[in-house]
Amino acid sequence: MLLRHTPKEIGERGALTINPAKTCQPIGAMYAALGIHGCLPHSHGSQGCCAYHRSTLTRHYKEPISAATSSFTEGSSVFGGQANLLQAIETIFTVYDPEVIAVHTTCLSETIGDDLPQIIDKADKAGKIPPGRRVIYANTPSYVGSHVTGFSNMVKGMAATARKSGQKNGKVNVIPGWVEPADMEEIKRLAALLGVEIILFPDTSGVLNGPLDGQFQMYPPGGVTMDELKSTGDSTGTLALGEWCSAEAARLLDTSCKVPCRVLEMPYGLKATDRFVDALRTIAGVSVGDEINHERGQLVDMISDMHQYFYHKQVAMAGDPDQLIALCEFLVSIDMWPRHVVTGTPGRAFEERIRQITAGLPYQVNVKAGAGADLFLFHQWIKNDPVDLLLGNTYLKYIARDEDIPLLRFGFPILDRVGHQYFPSVGYKGGLRLLEKILGALLDRKDRDDPEQSFELVM
Ligand code: SF4
Asked: What is the CATH number of the domain that holds 382?
């Protein structure tokens, strides 16, 4: 009972957050930056921040994460970090030879007020950025927003490098949001099956799920290239998957380069994948082939075959808004009932959308976003209204253990299991995997709890 002090009675809390359902902005910026080919993320702040961000990503992806830091000391904390960043840019290009450096700020450099565009411009004028190389940036103060906001800010920084040449490239920009490398691979596979050429950014496939081949590669083969990012300004259109992670970058492309955009929900589950495939089909003017129809049919088959085990099972979910919205819709579509939903990432639209999705349920779902939406409150809700399944990251294992509820690990971070890097959850194939995992958790529990007279061999 590691959380034995969590009371069932819910009291008033003003400013206090206990066990937040989020982490800090630069982690998202660092993950997004790793989706650019030949990129070295750079943390403009103290060494401790960078070490924390790198280690969290390393623990989740089980890959060594390279990132540089401005290594603030007492002097830079008082006088600002310009000198550190100028020196860092010169040293990084000389020693580590990246194509691009993606700089993000931290709480400290934001509080000081370091002006990143001015410092990068100064580095450029001083000849510290070699020809053909780039330094991009994102402001990621962690006392607002969350890792999701940081991811979105860095993706916006990528979109800011787009240029309109006047010559269309015939491609569709797809901004996948914070999904796993395997999900990015799956999105590219679906687009290829449709015969649609896309520019996916960021793209961490081939970067954070690569093979062990005995060779260390500072810059693995994956990632969107800077040339591709530049040409996003010439694309036919942009599909942004997720309002929180991807929409701002898509809107920037729309205003700066007149590339029309559509914001969709992440393609988890049947309906959201249908909408994604339909949007790609429409924008590129192609038709859906047999292979995709076949995969869709398999997902529908599994839903109908196993429907009795999903039916009216109640689920408590914690995580990031774009994922939770799509997953909630998927659960409701297979007759499962979301009961409690929290995200530490702020945004009023989250609560509205979850309420819309769950409007047909016989009770009002507990839903909260932002600072007060922490895992402490989430646990209290569960104590008052128990559920059949938990869905969320590794931090939920404490609640799962105390309340004896099966946990389906999903989201970020997953520190105690593997597979998320290699097996997609998006698309129809991903839907099959999600269902398999949900079923596995529910049926294992049924096998454990059933009395002998109803213990079944065949399910
Ligand atoms: S919350 Fe701020 S100070 Fe703490 S690790 Fe994140 S960026 Fe650094």
From this structure: 3.40.50.1980
Q: Give, for ligand 1, the residue of 23, 31, 47, 49 to mutate: max count of ligand atoms closer than 8 Å to Cβ.
A: 49
325's CB contacts (< 8 A; 6+ apart) are: 265, 266, 350, 353, 354, 357
Q: Tens digit of pLDDT for each residue in 126-174?
A: 999 999 999 999 999 999 999 999 999 999 999 999 999 989 999 999 9
Buried b (16+ CB within 10 A) or exposed e, 400-422: bebbebbbbbbbbbbeeeeebbe
Distance CA 228, CA 244 (A): 23
The answer to whether the Cα torsion of 94, 96, 98, 101 is positive or negative is negative
425 shares a domain with 305: yes
Q: Distance, CA 43 to ligand 1 centroid (Å)?
A: 11
The protein residue whose alpha carbon is closest to atom 6 in ligand 1 is: 24
**Given this model, what pLDDT does residue 239 score?**
98
Same domain? 307 vs 421: yes
Q: Give the residue among 161, 148, 150, 177 at the shortest CA–CA distance from 253.
A: 161
Q: What is the mean pLDDT of the chain?
A: 97
In a domain, 199, yes or no: yes
Domain final residue, candidates 125, 144, 163: 144
DSSP three-state, residue 71? coil
Query: Does residue 24 have its Cβ closer than 6 Å to ligand 1?
Result: yes
Helix, coil or strand: residue 159: helix
- Whether 56 lines ligand 1, by a CB cut-off of 6 Å, is no
Find the 366 Cα to ligand 1 centroid distance in Å.
30
Residue 30 in contact with ligand 1 by CB distance below 6 A: no
> How far, in Å, is the centroid of ligand 1 from the Cα of 234?
37
Together in a domain, 331 and 202? no
State which residues form the domain around 189. 172-209+218-293
**In-domain check, residue 157:** no
CA of 295 to the centre of ligand 1 (A): 43
Whether the CB of 107 sits within 6 Å of ligand 1: yes
Do residue 317 and residue 377 come from a single domain? yes
Q: Which of 293, 313, 343 is the last residue of a domain?
A: 293
> How much is the pTM?
0.97
Q: From the alpha carbon of 45, which atom of ligand 1 is closest?
A: 8
Q: Distance from the CA of 48 to the center of ligand 1, in angstroms? A: 8
Domain annotation covers residue 154: no
Do 114 and 222 reside in the same domain of the chain?
no
Domain count within the chain? 3
